[in-house]
Specification:
Elements: H1 2-22, E1 23-25, E2 47-52, E3 57-62, H2 63-74, H3 81-102, E4 106-107, E5 110-111, E6 115-116, H4 128-135, H5 137-142, H6 144-152, E7 157-161, E8 164-165, E9 170-171, H7 181-184, E10 207-213, H8 214-222, E11 239-244, E12 250-255, E13 258-260, H9 262-269, E14 276-280, E15 284-290, E16 298-299, H10 300-308, H11 313-320, E17 325-329, H12 330-333
Helix pairs in contact: 2-3, 2-6, 3-6, 3-10, 3-11
The chain binds zinc ion.
The site of zinc ion (ZN) has 8 residues, from strand 6.
Amino acid sequence: MKSVIWGIVFFIFITVFMPMFIISSCDISVKNTDKPKEKNIVESDLIITMYNDNTDEIVEIGLEKYTIGVVAGEAPAEFEIEALKAQAVAARTYALWRRSLYKGKGHPDHPGALVCNNHAHCQEWLSKEQLKERHGDNWIENHLPKIEEAVMSTKGIIMTYNMQPIEPLYHSTSGGRTENSEDVFSTAVPYLRGVSSPYEEGSPVLVDLYEISIKDFISGIKDNHDDFSINEKRISSEIDVLERTDGGTIKRIKIGNKEFSGREIRELFDLRSADFTVDVKFNSIKFTTRGYGHGVGMSQWGANGMAKKNKTFDEILKHYYNGTDLSVLKSYNE
Ligand SMILES: [Zn+2]
């Protein structure tokens, strides 16, 4: 009996009091337009552990400095400032979400480190030296300050749901509508709902074409599925899209004797998205994709389109992450 009572006390502590220690929610429709001071950039109350894929080392890095490197790696600096601010909040939230999941243990794929600098696994993070190498000195002078401003003017702000940091998935371009999380991944997440994303016309990857010979198309599937067969002579009637999500992603497609998810075909042929059409040409297959990425959470180009329509970063985030709050890490308020 005693252990049950202690269990209840522990549960209440974990679910009610613990989050209060971590974050204090507040209404942030505030626009902090103060120019950040240079010295603030390296200051942070929170230290994040990051595995550096290039050097095979775990480094400790201040949260805001980490966020600057992620925004610089994940978003074009030409973006509107409000879109960069939205990206900064998402990038910062990602680290806190990982922290809430793994605490000091780190991610199982890189034990001891909450995040890594590899965009295919966590979020891309670039050091100032790497940015200089990639974009040149002029970029550092002309563009980096804008990214730093986006980060420092949202310092300590993260997105929460039920007082917990959210998993802030984002992608380049949705193709007009984002996806429900369960249609792409396995879990339904209340704040990752499909929403319209109408202002993506600025995206260079809104529509993309990819053509492959019929021979390579067939061998591409066969290499991964031994039991795959298809009638090459009437190939156009052998490809049939069976189901799409509301956001346009192919849920099920029948090719020859097998059924695939759009995601499988996307991965097999390295397509920009799983929202595609297939046309059979004389001796080739033409894929036309809409959008770029998994389509869940914030569309970066959609966010930039909203910013161009004078939406603020909090309006952008609340559009793409349904029912979330913006909260300030408590230590930043003290
Ligand atoms: Zn990682």
